[in-house]
Amino acid sequence: MSIAAKTVSGTRLDLARVRADFPILEQRVHGQPLVYLDNAATSQKPRQVIETISRYYEETNSNVHRGVHYLSEQATNEYEAVRTIAKEFLNAADPREIIFVRGTTEGINLVAQSYGRMHVDAGDEILITAMEHHSNIVPWQILANERGATLRAAPINDEGELDMEAFSRLLGPKTRLVAITHVSNALGTINPVRRIVEMAHSWNVPVLVDGAQAVPHMKADVQALGCDFYTFSGHKVYGPTGIGILYGKSALLEKMPPYQGGGDMIISVTLEKTVYNRLPYKFEAGTPDIAGVIGLGAALNYVNRLGIENVGAHESTVLAYATAAVSTIPGLRVIGTAKEKAGVLSFTLENIHPHDIGTILDQEGIAIRTGHHCSQPVMQHFGVEATARASFALYNTKEEVDRLVRGIEKVREVFR
Amino acid sequence: MSDLRDLYQEVILEHSKAPRNYRESPTANRKAEGFNPLCGDRFTVYLTLDGESIRDVSFQGSGCAISKASASMMTQSVKGKSVAEAAKLFESFHRLVTGLGHGNGDAELGKLTVFSGVSQFPARVKCATLAWHTLEAALEGKQETTTE
What we know:
The complex is a heterodimer. By secondary structure, chain A is of the alpha/beta class.
């Protein structure tokens, strides 16, 4: 498949060049050029990230924050430079507010176990929404069970948008924390985070934002959003797996107890007493994923160079094109029709299970996700067991959407 | 496409659209629920055991074409068999869908051989075996089972 440099008008991405950065996209699957539309699960990695990680292992590999020798100093410098890149990526006020974690899931668990245990007691409430990923439900259930607190979830409407009125009614003097997704992984809905933060802050309630599905598509400016915690995974934004970022306001992080104990998170240890390290190291016990952090830095630089606004504009064009294209397919129902959406097209086909759709599309070289997307409450709301989900990244094209549409026609032929 | 036709054989598509023994059973004395947590497929198998003999078997639930057709054809093939025969049939069926072929002493699979194409789709083996695992759980008197 040849892609002209200007397949998409109105955006400033040179698609042919961008696609050439991703070696995996040259692959054929079942004899067909790969169409990778499972980006909400994980994105592919550009050469710049892959080469940065190889180069780190070939030239710099050493432990950080420990050695007096040359390599350790180099590794520490490169590692800490990424903290500054991440600080700028999220527009945090201070690099000490950037904690390296394994991913969004660990970021949420850290806040639940550290902040949550300190501030949530019997009779208190934690407020989430009905569109959360399981990783923004289960840590709060564990905390609520442990503390005798109650977990409440604000409902969504049939478009897959948060019911803001219900949300505001559920906020109150008992609420200790709001945890909400920035963009829904199953529906693509963009939540009005700024308004949510204002509402929560009017009750003096801090807000954690799950940014896993947002940062690949839009600017996440934590100071503009006003949120207290923001967390995302590197692998969904063109970085390696196993690394992510937790942002927290320093005033909150300072008072929070450590999440895990170990090396690097201490100033001094005796068998009787330990003095914890300052921020951010208090929350980074043990040897971190150094190569992962440095790879993530390369990924964020890559996105910065293209410009997240350009990326988002291109993806919006592709999503709008895809939404219009599938709407003509008989029996196809789009799940999640919010006015503000990013990156995700979830759908069902009448009388055809999403798994069968996934298998048949795979034979056409098209990778999508099928299932409940770790969002069973969302599936329950729409009365479906599962959906098929195509999710878009900066390298996807309208031609690929055309292949998807032809693939869906093929599915319907098999089941005719 | 040839691989796809191996998987989605006419018999399988037909059973998935019009599953046999798709009902609750008033006489059932065993019941188990099978759940695949990864994809959300969920079936209940109802079993009427008369000593060691399977007098009636039926099912209800939701899932993909492969899992539904497999459940439908499972009910047809074990009805009237003994518990030991059904267990042996599952063993043979499992070998078939995992591509281990037909071994010596394997039970006669009959119409169930339409599922041989599943072996080319490892991700779908769990779909084809969910109803069988659920049957096994019901025979063992367990309330529920999962496949992953």
